[in-house]
Design goal:
alpha/beta, Rossmann fold, Dihydrodipicolinate Reductase, domain 2, Alpha-Beta Plaits, 3 domains, 14 helices, elongated, binds L-homoserine
């Protein structure tokens, strides 16, 4: 074994960073044996260097992250500060000064992955980011490496634990959105400002990263259609149950049936209770992958938290260190397919539509005509009447999202339709 250690700079020492430092220390011998050289924590950049950090030598702590990545003797920079800046500049500077990078930064990868990969390639360095998507779950490496000989057609997952916790609570207790969110906040799953999670921004960044890798195509955050889950109601769950479904916030990356384009989207959807993703409870994440040769694969585990995320970071750290020692680099960006990313209107899906209508002759025929005029075929209709009013639940066959949303717009204009109580896509059948 080489005795000269590989030097690691840690950028950020919060929930994840402190766990990375702890595991580097407690597993030092095993890591050295697995890598073939010791790894040494050579510096830790933080915003508040005066804060006491258990297990971290204060002499290593600095507030000058730029000076740390510019040192020239750093082999690997581990970036766990998140956000776009200063993370982006620090990563670029790290490559320029000879380091490889391990990052957990989904927002940055989703926005600027191509440029960061280019910078890594230009300097012959590695950029690894297993922790950016679904915490501890091995996903980036299986997609990038294990499935590199297959053709992936769909990646569909629950990639946000906070929202899965909230939806699971609503499902199991009948609670409304706000009540379930309050519980998620009290238990520390939801942040004080939950916008990034509940509005689907976090999941959309992960969808962009997964779609890019799965389809060998650049997919940026802006390419991902996004709907949050704040409008999901207890009534939606009741409807889902009647159909033998539950509701999940899904990130769905798909190759079009003709193979000529791809789509990426995040929105709440009903899925059958028989689908493997339906049984993902609490704050867990899971990603369901469908490919030509392998068929259906499911990756499941904790998608957040200090220790699980640190596990993914450490796995990358070992891989990058091994590459350093052998003088190799791992896989870089693979975007050769360069498929166009189609808009949401082109996505083929099914809708569950719940309408409040007048209960009188001809209403059902009127409603059915609107579907027919938009080329949307109805799968099932369920009606329940009371005091001259009725609730009409229509589930469609597969059609383009543009046709389906056009249908809903036209239904809203019918005098006999008092209101559209809920619209939800149905997936996984
Ligand atoms: N806030 C995310 C979640 C974890 O709830 O899953 C970090 O991406």
């Amino acid at each position: 074994m080489r005795t000269r250690p590989l030097k690691v700079a840690l950028l950020g020492c919060g929930v994840v960073g402190s766990e990375v430092a702890r595991i580097m220390t407690t597993h030092a011998d095993d890591l050295a044996a697995r890598i073939g050289a010791p790894v040494e924590l050579a510096g830790v950049a933080v915003r508040r260097p005066s804060k006491v950090r258990e297990g971290i030598d204060p002499a290593l702590v600095t507030s000058d992250a730029t000076a740390l990545v510019k040192r020239g003797d750093i082999d690997v920079v581990v970036e766990v500060i998140g956000g776009i800046e200063p993370a982006r500049s620090l990563i670029t500077t790290a490559f320029e000064h000879g380091a490889s990078v391990v990052s957990a930064n989904k927002a940055l990868l989703a926005q600027d992955g191509a440029a960061l990969h280019a910078a890594a390639g230009q300097h012959g360095k590695d950029l690894y980011y297993e922790a950016a998507v679904a915490g501890a779950i091995p996903l980036i490496r299986p997609l990038r490496e294990s499935l590199a000989g297959d053709k992936i057609n769909r990646v569909m997952g629950i990639v946000n634990g906070t929202t899965n916790f909230i939806l699971d609570k609503m499902d199991s207790t009948g609670a409304g959105y706000q009540e379930a969110l309050d519980e998620a906040t009290a238990l520390g799953y939801a942040e004080a400002d939950p916008t990034a999670d509940v509005e689907g921004f976090d999941a959309a960044a992960k969808a962009a990263i997964l779609a890019g890798i799965a389809f060998h195509t650049r997919v940026r955050l802006d390419d991902v259609y996004r709907e949050g889950m704040t409008e999901v109601t207890a009534a939606d769950f009741a409807s889902a149950k009647e159909m033998g479904c539950t509701i999940k916030l899904l990130a769905i990356c798909e190759r079009a049936e003709d193979g000529g384009s791809v789509t990426a989207r995040v929105h709440p959807a009903m899925i059958p209770l028989t689908h493997p993703l339906a049984s993902v409870r609490g704050a867990y994440n899971a990603v369901f992958v469908e490919s030509d040769a392998a068929g259906q694969l499911m990756f499941y585990g904790p998608g957040a938290g200090g220790s699980p995320t640190a596990s993914a970071v450490l796995g990358d750290l070992v891989a990058v260190c091994r590459n350093r020692l052998s003088g190799a680099t791992g896989p870089g960006e693979s975007a050769y397919a360069a498929l166009p990313v189609s808009p949401m209107g082109d996505v083929v899906t099914r809708y569950h539509i719940s309408l409040d209508v007048a209960d009188k002759p001809g209403v059902l025929a009127q409603v059915a005509t609107v579907f027919a005029e938009h080329g949307v075929s109805i799968d099932t209709v369920r009606q329940q009447g009371k005091d001259g009013e009725a609730s009409l639940v229509v589930v469609t066959h597969r059609a383009s999202d543009a046709s389906l949303s056009g249908t809903v717009e036209a239904l809203r204009k019918l005098d006999t339709v008092r209101g559209v109580a809920s619209i939800m896509r149905v997936e996984g059948e």
